[in-house]
Amino acid sequence: MLTPTQIAGKAISIGETKASSKTSKTFVLAVFAGAFIALGPFGPQIASLNAKNPATGKLLGALVFPIGLLMVLCAGAELFTGNSLILIPVLEGKVKLFGMLKNWVIVYLGNFLGGVLVALGVTCGGSLSAFEGLANAVVNTAVAKCSLSFTDALIRGIFCNILVCAAVWISFGAGELAGKITGLFLPVTLFVLCGFEHCVANMYFIPAGFFAAAEYGTDAGNLSISGFLLGNLLPVTLGNIIGGAVVVGAGYWFSYLKK
Fold this sequence. Notes:
The protein is mostly helical and 259 residues long. Helix content is 77%, strand content 0%. It has helices at residues 4-20, 23-47, 54-64, 67-76, 87-91, 97-124, 134-146, 150-173, 177-193, 199-216, 225-256. Helix 2 (23-47) crosses helix 6. The two termini are 24 Å apart. The relative contact order is 0.18.
C-alpha cells in the first residue's frame, strides 16, 4: 500500500496521461465508463425492489452499486467524476488548465452517451419488465431526482464526489486487485447508502425514467428535459466538481505536494 504522498505522485502521472490521451480514445473509454456506471445503478434497482424496509433496500442497492466503479478502475475507462483529480497535476504545473478542461468535456459527453445507451437498452430489451414493479421504480427514482432543489442537489453532489474520489485515491494506493476492490468498495457503498448524487449515474437514472414512462405508460409526474438538465444534472455536476476537484484534489495537493 502506497503512502498518501506516494499516491499524490501517482495521481500526477495518471493525470498527465489522461490529459495527453487522444480525443478519440478518451471518448471511447468515456462511453465505456458511462455504460459501466449505468449498469451499477440498474443492479441496485433490482436488488432493492421488493425490500419491505426502505433502509434495507437502500443497503442492498449500495452493496451492488460499486461494481460499476470497479469495472471503470480495474477494466480501464474514463470517468468524469474520477477525472476531477486531474486538477492535482494542473496545480503542480504538469498539465495545462486547457488540457484538463478538454478532458472533462470529452469524458462528460462520452459518459452521457454511455449512460443513455444503457438506459435505452434495458428498456427496449425488456429488462424493466423482468420484475414486477421495476419499471415504476425506475420512473419514481427519476422523478425524485428531478424534484430536488438546486441547493440539495448541489450539496449531495459535493458529498458524493468526495467519497468517489476518496475511493479512486485509495485504489491508486493498492498494488493488488483485491486491495483496489476493497478500497473502492466501502466509500462508494457509503455514498449510495447516504443518498448522495452522482452526475454520471444520473445520466442513466433519469433517461431510464423517461424511456420507462414512454414504454410502459407510467405516470412520469413532473419529469421533464429541463428538470433533468437544469434541475438535476447541472447542480449535481457542479457539486461533483467541487467535491472531487476542489475538496479532494486541491486539498490533497496542498497537504502532500505544495512546497
